[in-house]
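Hypothesis: this fold can be encoded by more than one sequence.
Test: take the structure tokens below, design a sequence, compare later.
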């Protein structure tokens, strides 16, 4: 399991990640802003190597900036290159509305629970053959 902490503008934001079968689970807390999104993107791109799919747990996220959404799209493209999928889970009402209004819901598998997200995008732990 990996972890990083970014502090900006007096607020703390964290990222932890863990591999589940062929899916990387990235759990954020705090806001995803222009200050921390580039570092998170770089870190997740580096640790994504063994994974095919990606689950972003946004349960503890109160705000995502435009830079944060660009980070998500970049990660989505990296996952697509691997033949995987990217799920978003735990979005509050405002984030869900933004994802729907911008059309980002077309790119991501939007799930209500972490179990649902892992079940939808993770192949190895479900007994399915991995796409390599």
């Amino acid at each position: 399991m990996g972890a990083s902490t970014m502090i900006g503008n007096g607020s703390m934001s964290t990222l932890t990640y863990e591999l589940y079968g062929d899916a990387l689970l990235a759990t954020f807390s705090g806001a995803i802003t222009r200050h921390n999104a580039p570092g998170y993107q770089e870190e997740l791109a580096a640790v994504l190597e063994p994974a095919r799919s990606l689950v972003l747990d946004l349960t503890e996220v109160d705000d995502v900036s435009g830079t944060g959404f660009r980070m998500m799209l970049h990660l989505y493209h990296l996952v697509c290159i691997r033949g995987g999928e990217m799920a978003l889970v735990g979005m509050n009402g405002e984030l869900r509305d933004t994802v729907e209004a911008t059309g980002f819901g077309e790119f991501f598998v939007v799930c209500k629970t972490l179990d649902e997200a892992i079940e939808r995008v993770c192949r190895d732990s479900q007994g399915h053959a991995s796409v390599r």
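The first strand starts at residue 2 and ends at 8. The helical segments are 37-47, 66-81, 93-102, 114-121.
Hypothesis status: open.
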